[in-house]
Amino acid sequence: MIKIIDIHEQPNLENFINTHCREVSHIILKDKYTQVREDIVKNTELDDNSYIVDYTNNGYYTNDSRYMGKAFITISDWFNNVTLQPNIIFEKEDLKWLITNFEWENIFDITLNALIHLDEIKIDSHVVFNFYDQNQPSIHGIKALKEQNLDSESKFYINKLALLSSMNSVFEMKEVSLPYNARTIDKIMLKTKFKLPKSTYQNLNKKAVQKQLESINIYEKDKTKLKPYIVFLGFDFGYRGNSKYLFEYLTEQYSKYTVYFVTDDKKGDHFISPSHIETNEMIERASVVILESYLPDNIKPNGTIIQLWHGTPLKRLFLDSKEPKQNIDIFNYRARKYNKLIKQDYFITDVESINYVFESAFPMQDTKIVSCGYPRNQYLLEYKRDMNEIESIKQLLNLNKEKKTILYTPTWRDNNDEEFLLEFPEEIKSKYNIIYKYHEEDHSNKHKNYIDTAQFETQQLILVSDIIISDYSSIIFDALTIDKKVYLYTPDYKVYDYNRGLYKHIYELVNENQYFEKEALFKAILSGEYYDINEKFINKNNESYETITSLIDESMI
Length: 557
Description:
Blueprint: E1 2-6, H1 13-20, E2 26-30, E3 34-36, H2 38-41, E4 50-57, H3 75-79, E5 88-91, H4 92-101, H5 107-117, E6 121-131, H6 139-144, H7 152-164, H8 184-191, H9 198-213, E7 227-234, H10 241-252, E8 258-262, E9 271-272, H11 279-285, E10 286-291, E11 304-307, H12 324-329, H13 333-341, E12 346-349, H14 355-361, E13 368-371, H15 375-383, H16 387-397, E14 404-408, H17 426-429, E15 432-436, H18 458-464, E16 467-470, H19 475-481, E17 485-489, H20 493-499, H21 504-510, E18 514-515, H22 518-527, H23 544-555
Parallel strand pairs: 1-2, 4-6, 7-8, 7-10, 8-9, 10-11, 11-12, 12-13, 14-15, 14-16, 16-17, 17-18
Antiparallel strand pairs: 2-5, 3-6, 4-5
Helix pairs in contact: 4-5, 10-15, 15-18, 16-18
C-alpha cells in the first residue's frame, strides 16, 4: 500500500507515519508545487526498496534521464540530469530512518540524503510526478551536508547545487573532484573554482535548460492553421496495416473528405512522398492526422491526432520497459517521445480489456482511448468466409491446394540473431505450404526458399493460412480473431524477456501452445495437438471503420 502525504499538512512527519501508516509499505511526499499522478502510481512495480521514478515539469517531459534505462540509481546519475526534482517513492522504513537521522526542512533535503545514504535505490520508469516549480534544497539542509562523509564527486555536486540555489558553496576546492560524466557547466565551475557570481552560473544553467527545451518536441497546437483534409502517416510511412485498411475504406466507401497518405510505397493523387518539400507543412495543416506508430520528431501536427497503433502488445512498451539501449544511447529518447505522445487526441485499441496496458505504457492524461477494434481485423472478419477473396490470394501465392498452409512470422531482433529461426523439416513441408513473413526490419536472405510474400499484406496471409507460428508478435491476436490455430516458438524466451520485457499476464493467456524446442513444436503440429486459447484480449465484434469515421466527422473543421 502506498500513502501520499502532503508535507505542509504534517509538521510532525515521524509521528504521523508511526500513527497513520502502519499498513503502508511506501510513502510519497508532496508539497504545494507537486502533483502526484495517482492513476500512474498503481502502475509502478515496487518491492521493499525505495524507488526513483520519472516526472514532468509543468506537464512536459524536460529531462534527459538516461538513468531510466538502469536498474539502480547512483548519485552521479541523478545529479547529471538537466533538471533536479525530489522524485522518490520512499520505502516506509527508509523514510523513517532518513527523517530521524539527518537534518532536513523540505522534500528536496530528504531526497538528497536518500541518494547519499541509502545503499540501493531502484528505478521505475513511470512518470509519477508533475512539478509546477523547480524544487530546491533548504539552506539548513545544504549546510548540514558539510558534516557528512561524502566522496569528492558528491561534494562537487553539492557545491553546484548550492550555487544554483543562490547559496554559497559548501566545500573547498581541495575537497572536490570533477564528475566522470561532467557537463559543460561543471567544467566551468571547476575551472573558475566556484568563484564567479552565482548569477553567472545560474545564467549558464538557464541556457543549458533552454537548449534542452528546444530539442524535445515541446509545442502548442495552433488550430488557426488547419485545412479540411485528412493525412495518414501509416507505420513509419509504410502503406500497410491498420492505416492501409482504414485509408481504403475512407477513399472507396466514405469519400466525404480529401484524404492523403504519406508514403513512397504507392503513387497517385492520394499519395505524397515523405521527402517532398511541402509534406511536413501539409501534415501540420491537416484537420486530422492518423498514425500507426510514433510521430517523427520533425513534424508537429496542429490538428486532431488519431493513433491507430499496430497491435495488442505482448512486448513491454515505452514507460513499461526500461529500454536500456534506447535510453542510454539515443539523445533525449524519452523526452522526444513523451512530448509527442501527449499531443494525441484518440488512441484506438482492439478491445477494452487491454486498455490498462496502454494507460500504463503511454501518457494518456489528455488522450481518449477508443476500443472499437483494429481496421486490419475488420478486414479479416469481413472476408474470413469470402471464398472468392481467399482463393484469389491462394492462387497469387501459388499455394498447393492439396496442402494446408503454415504462416511463420518471427519477431525481429535488433541483434540480428538468427539462431532462433525455424527451418522446417521435410516431413512438415510435405504436408504444408510454408509461408515465411519477414519483419519489415529483417533483411536476412536465409529464408528465401519459402514462398515469397513481399507483395502481400500480413492480413491476406492470415486469411489463407491454417496455422500461424509466431513468438512475441501481436499478429497472434489477429489470427485468433478469425479462429486460426496459433503456436508460439520461443527458444530465446528468457533472454528476450530480460532484454525487452514481456507482459506476462497477457502472455500467459495465449501461451497454451508455446514451445521452446522445435522438435516438440513439429511433433505437436503433425499430431494435431492444440489447446484452445483464452479470448479475453480478442475482439470479434469489430466496428472500427464506423467508429473512427465518426471521430473524424467530429474533428473536421
